[in-house]
Amino acid sequence: MDTMIDSSSMTTPTPPAPRRGGSARAVLVVLALVGLLGYGGWRWRARAHDAAKAAASARGPNDRIVPVLTAPVERRDVPIWLEGLGNVAAFYTVTVKPQVDGPITAVRFKEGQSVKKGEALVQIDPRPFAIQLHSAQAALARDAANLKNAQLNEQRYQTLRAQNLIPDQQLTDQQATVAQLDAQVRADQAQVDAAKLNLDYAQIKSPIDGVVGVRLVDPGNVVHATDLTGLVVVTQLDPIAVFFTLPEDDLPAISKAMASGPPLEVEALSRDGDKPLGRGKLAVIDNEINQATATIRLKAIFDNPQKLLWPNEFVKARLRLATRENAIVVPAAVVQHGPQGTFAWVVGAGATASVRPITVDLLQGESAIVSSGLSPGEQVVVDGQAQLRPGSKVAPKPASTAPAASSAHAEAKP
């Protein structure tokens, strides 16, 4: 008897799962190798750093070579400048006004043009003044004729009186008539001169050499001699003035220098101090000190042919007070300050830095005038002093800029 097999009781065998243990172990091995290599590199660098530090300690601080910038100590003439703020003012400023009444018939200038003294600017209708002149000339001619006739009569009366043909009174009356007519002729001549003057005033002319500004009155307007508003403003720009202030403490030195020598030189620079605008001479020291600012006001006159200076422009003004001859000069950055006073780092033989006490007589802009402690030709450190110790070895390199001895205000001795 055949045996019946139930298909539902039969199971299909499951294939074995893939083995992943081998891949995980490989990743762990790689990570371990990377960690070992990193640790080894770190240990190597640490040992190298410790060795370098130990070597540096063994050498000492003075064996390290310090890079510095140096400059030579110089002997030369140094101009002493006093610097202040100033503003430009026209040498002359004239508001042109009419001196007679009448309508403006022509304007003969262009705004902003240069004019010469006596050049016509504005024309007022001249016809009324020409009529007045003709009338005054006619009156003069009439009275002059009467005077001539009276003088002839006076001569006849004198002859007749000498012959006792007329009384003294008649001669005296004739002499009075001559005197009156002579006075009338003089008055007529004055009227002629006044009419000529008014006719000349009808043509308004520039009173100075200068530059005209904006026109203030247009043609066609009737102007009067009593008008408060002018016709145009003319300013003289060459020469031109610069007003500037300096501390009152500088006044004695300025007064002494101004009294004992030629006029003091003044330079005008742009507000940033970079562009020179002109050179002039000190003309006036004001007669009082400004108590609010403790400053003294000065005036300098400049030739200004190129019109680089303009009225109301702000400038830096530098007054050349004197010239220090054969001074020992170093860059101002050389001067260092310490508990014992001022000193400088000097580069000596073997490129070794040493401290040198110095006496600074004057700081002039970016330069210092030294009265003792340094000799011409020595090399001094301009930059890099913070890393130096006495006896330090240095690698000197010349500074790229020379001291600008004439660029700023003279300061007092520290």
Characteristics of this structure?
single chain; 414 residues; alpha+beta; Elongation Factor Tu (Ef-tu), domain 3; Helix Hairpins; disordered N terminus
Can you give a write-up of this model?
The protein is built from four helices and 21 strands. The protein has helices at 21-59, 127-162, 168-201, 251-260, and strands spanning 65-72, 74-96, 102-107, 114-115, 120-124, 203-205, 210-212, 222-223, 232-247, 265-269, 276-290, 295-302, 314-331, 336-338, 341-347, 353-357, 359-364, 367-372, 379-383, 393-398, 410-411. It is 29% helix and 37% strand. Among the domains are: 65-77 and 325-411, Beta Barrel (conserved putative lor/sdh protein from methanococcus maripaludis s2 fold), CATH 2.40.420.20; 82-90 and 235-324, Efflux pump adaptor protein, beta barrel domain (Elongation Factor Tu (Ef-tu), domain 3, Beta Barrel), CATH 2.40.30; 126-201, Helix hairpin bin (Helix Hairpins). The protein has 414 residues and is α+β, with helices and mostly antiparallel strands.
